[in-house]
UniProtKB/TrEMBL annotation:
Signal sequence range: none
Protein name: Carboxymuconolactone decarboxylase family protein
Gene Ontology molecular function: peroxiredoxin activity
InterPro entries xrefs: AhpD-like, CMD-like
SUPFAM superfamilies from the UniProt entry: AhpD-like
Domain Carboxymuconolactone decarboxylase-like: 44-128
Amino acid sequence: MRLDRPRIEPLKDEEFTEEHKDALGYFLKQGWVLNIFRTLVRAPRAFKRFNVWGGYVLSERNDLPPRARELIILRTGWLCKAGYEWGQHVEIGRDCGLTDAEIERIKQGPDAREWTPLERALLQATDELVTDHFITDATWQALSGLTEKQRMDVVFTVGQYTQVSMILNSFGIQLDAGMELDPDLRKR
């Protein structure tokens, strides 16, 4: 975590206006509103648009298999030093079939020996997008087992979660109740 307190405070339930409640509708119906949403809803119109794109990236409309998507999201969160993002997506990654050993190995990146060639290429593409905002020809070729749409979704996913990481880090969004910060992110 970059900050130990929020720069922008998340709204409490009693602070929600009708506009906030409208923007948070789905989350209120589910009975849980995460700190990221409690913070972003301070700009309710932006929040609604943000959720449309984020909803695409996390949905079945994203053609990447969920496991591959979570591999990319976790690597992006790790590279961006986004403790909140990492913590949320460790659980989602497990639900999508990533093992604890694989999640730990994501920290090492594409050079860890145990990755399949496609997993290595996904991690390499993520590293390149986060650091240089460009996938090299060699990595693009290594992704040739993916469809054109899946390659597009690699870029869309890294882009979305780089933005999310910037938001989390800069606004100082704190972990939700029950979450623990990965000890390795304390050192970074």
